Amino acid sequence: MEFLDRYQQIVADAITKYTFKDKPTELYDPMNYIISHGGKRLRPIMVLMACDLFGGDLKEAIKPALAIEFFHNFTLIHDDIMDEAPLRRNKPTIHTLHGINVGILSGDGLMLKAYKFFEDLEPEVFKACVRIFTHTGLLLCEGQQYDINFETQTDVTFDDYIRMITYKTGVLSASSFEIGALIAKANFKDAKAIFNFGKHIGIAFQIMDDYLDVFGDQAQFGKKHAGDIYENKKTVLYLMAREHATEEERKELDYWYSKKTDNIDKVYNVEKIFRRTKVDEKALRLIEKHNEIGQSYLKKIAIPEDKKKPFAELANYLLRRES
Amino acid sequence: MEFLDRYQQIVADAITKYTFKDKPTELYDPMNYIISHGGKRLRPIMVLMACDLFGGDLKEAIKPALAIEFFHNFTLIHDDIMDEAPLRRNKPTIHTLHGINVGILSGDGLMLKAYKFFEDLEPEVFKACVRIFTHTGLLLCEGQQYDINFETQTDVTFDDYIRMITYKTGVLSASSFEIGALIAKANFKDAKAIFNFGKHIGIAFQIMDDYLDVFGDQAQFGKKHAGDIYENKKTVLYLMAREHATEEERKELDYWYSKKTDNIDKVYNVEKIFRRTKVDEKALRLIEKHNEIGQSYLKKIAIPEDKKKPFAELANYLLRRES
C-alpha cells in the first residue's frame, strides 16, 4: 500500500531526527536501540492518518506520533522483562543485554520521554492528548495485569477476554487515531468515531492473532504452530471451545490445559475439540463482526468516502494477514 | 512544627480520600499498600506550602500534591527492585511480597496515575505543571543511572556527584515547590526562585545524609553506622577526602574501596583519612553554603517575611536532623 509506505517513511525520518542524544548514554542508548529495530510502526502511522483525514497539519502530528511509538516500546521493554523474553524482533532484548535494572529504568525513561513529545501542542490540545495518553497507558497496565491473572484464573469468561484484549491491544490503536484527530481539531463526535474504529479493528486483529496461531499458515504467520496451546493460553479459541464443548470435551480440555507439555498429542487433541466446536468459524465471524462495527463508525464520519479509503485498506491489511 | 502537622493532615486525608478503588486489584492494591505506609510526605507538603505562600487556593493544589507523592512512590517501587531491597519503611517491599513483575507493573501504573492527578487544572496550568513533572521524572531517571554508573566508575568527580544528587534528590523538592507556585499563579520569576530554594535545600539535605552516615549519632540517625563506607559508596565525604588526601592516603582509600568487606578495620582506617582530610568540616560548610544559596532565593521573593517563615523552618528541620 503506497500510503503506508509514505507514512512509514515520515515516521522513520522522524525517529532518526529525534534519536536521543541525552546523557547518560547507559540510560538512553537502550531506548534508541529498541526504537531503531522498527517493527511495523503502525501506531504512529495511525496518528498521522487521522490527522490527515481531518485536514490537520501533519507536521504538528509527527512528535505526538512518536510519543505513541515510544510509549509502545516502553511497554515492550517492561513486558519482555516480565515474560523473560530473550529476543524481540530477532534482536536480544534490553534486559538480556544490560540486565533487568537497565531494562526497568530505560523503560521508565522512555515513558517519560513520550510525554515530552506532546509539548509542542498548544495547551488545550496538549491537555486533551495527554489525558487520552495517560488513560490509555493505565488501561494497558490493567490489560497486562488481567493477562497475568488469566494464567492462574480458572473462571475466565469470554467477556473477561474481550476486555483484556481491548485494553492490551484495542485501546492504543484507538487512541492513536483519536490523538491524530484532536491535533487536526476534529470535533468530539468524529474523534470518538475514529477512536471506536481503531478499537474494534484492534480487537479483530487480536482475535485474528489467536486464530492464526492454530489455523494459520505457519510459514506466513512466522510463529511456532499452536504456541498458545502449548502455553495453555486462554485464547478466544479456548474460551469459545470450552463454552460449546460437551461435558466430556470440557474435561479433556481442562486436562490438557492443566499441564505444560511439549507432547504433540496435546495439540492434536485440543485442535480436534477446536474443530468439533467449530471455533475456527466462530472466530472468523467474530473478527468480521468487529471489523463491521469498526467500519460502521468510520461511515459515521462526514468526510468524503475516498478520503477514508486508507482506513478501510489498513483494516484489510491487518485482518487479511494470511492472504 | 505546627504548620507541618497541619499540612501532613491535609495530605493524609487526601490519600485516604483518593485511595485507588480501580480494578484489577492485583495492580492497584500494591500502589495503595506503599502509599499507605507514609513516610514524612514532605514533597506533597512542599506543593501545598508554595501554593499557600503565593496566595493560591489550597484545594486546587491537593491532587497535584498527591501526584508528586505518587510519583515519588513509583520511583521507590522500582528502586527497591533494582536495589533488591527486602524492606521499605519497615514493611516488606512490593516485589518481595508479589514478585518483580507486579513491582514493575504497579510502579508503571502509579507513574501514570500521578499524571491523572493534574487533570483538574485548567489547560495552561496543566501544561506548565505536566512539563515540569515530566522533566523532573527524566532527571530522576538520569540521576538514578548516574548513581548506578558510579558503582563501577573510578573517575567520579565532585561535580558528577553534585549533579547526581541534584537530579536524584534536589529536583523533586524543587519541582514540588514550583508546581505549588504555578497553581497559585505565581509569576515566572518567583516560581523559579522557589524552585531554586527547593533545589539547594535538597542538595544540602543529601550532603547531610552522607555526613550523618559517618559522623551522625547512630541512635538518632537510625541507620547502620558507616553503611556507605561498607558499601563503597562514592559519597561527598569520599570524594572530598580523595581530593585532599596525600598520595599515600589516596592509595589506602582506593585499596579499601576496591573490595566489599565487613572488616571493621576498613571503617576505622577510612574514617581516619576522613578526619585527617577534615571532610567533616568541609561537608558541614558545603551544607551551609547550599542552605545559604537556598535562603538567598527565598529572599528574592517579594512577599512579607513572616509568610516565608515556614520555609526557613522547614530548611532548619531538614538540615538539623541530629539536634
UniProtKB/TrEMBL annotation, chains A, B:
GO biological process: isoprenoid biosynthetic process
Superkingdom of origin: Bacteria
Entry annotated with the keyword Secreted: no
Gene Ontology terms, MF aspect: metal ion binding; prenyltransferase activity
Names of the cofactor(s): Mg(2+)
Claim: Metal-binding is one of the keywords in the record: yes
Keywords of this entry: Magnesium, Metal-binding, Transferase
PANTHER family per record: GERANYLGERANYL PYROPHOSPHATE SYNTHASE, SHORT CHAIN ISOPRENYL DIPHOSPHATE SYNTHASE
Assigned protein family: Belongs to the FPP/GGPP synthase family.
Name recorded for this polypeptide: Geranylgeranyl diphosphate synthase, type II
